Amino acid sequence: MRNLLFIFALFSLISCKQNKTEEKIPVEPNNGIGNGAQPPKVLSFSENIEEAHNKTAFMMNEAVSYDIKLKFGGSPRLEGTVSMTTNSSKVRLDKADGTTVIFDGDQVYISPETAKKEGARFDIFTWQYFFAIPFKLTDPGTVWEKQQPKMLDSMEYQTAKLSFESNVGDSPDDWYVVYKDPETNRLKAAAYIVTFGSEQEKAEENPHAIVYSDYQTFKDAEIATQWSFHNWSSTDGFGEKLGEATISNVKFFSPEKELFKASENSELLER
């Protein structure tokens, strides 16, 4: 993934592990039972979403890149190209202003040395996780908790809360309330808090949500090409729209050895 705020703080690189108490939901009706056929495979809430997005197809590729344009309050927030391994172990962000931020699997670097460093570590972990979250719901370290159904656009959605075990990623105290589309099983939305740079109690005073739309198929993987960001509360649900993102030029590829390696003029970014 971790895990996120309006303009300034949204989250982190996160990994996940399926909770054994997570409710299992049949993938399909009991077709063929009684005819010697095997019972249908039973999937959990998170597994249903991953299957709907075709995680298997996504993970068959070594890396993926995409262009991203972010706006908040009508003003540009970020424009550039994200390149990442499909398991999020390495990430590169090439901004339109010439700044490059790289997570090499261990440390985060920025170049050139004169580049603005504020928010750079947040950027390298946040946007790639928002993009990849439908494929990371059963990664090691995840904890799931069933929630009551919630409304969005006059439709009821099954929801579950995603949190993380201690020492997972940069912000293990982040959590998400995941909305699953009842018709497609795809990820519809995710409410979240961002604890990066703040205490969990403070972050929980200001939760937000991201809504995914305009799904397109890339090498059999289902990827949302439009995101919208909103205020959110557990009682009132989705509020004012705060921003939006457009994803384009999605490409799967095999990365060159140097792609995720910091250049000589890079500077190490500390936590």
Automatic annotation (TrEMBL):
<protein>
    <submittedName>
        <fullName>Uncharacterized protein</fullName>
    </submittedName>
</protein>
<dbReference type="InterPro" id="IPR045444">
    <property type="entry name" value="DUF6503"/>
</dbReference>
<dbReference type="Pfam" id="PF20113">
    <property type="entry name" value="DUF6503"/>
</dbReference>
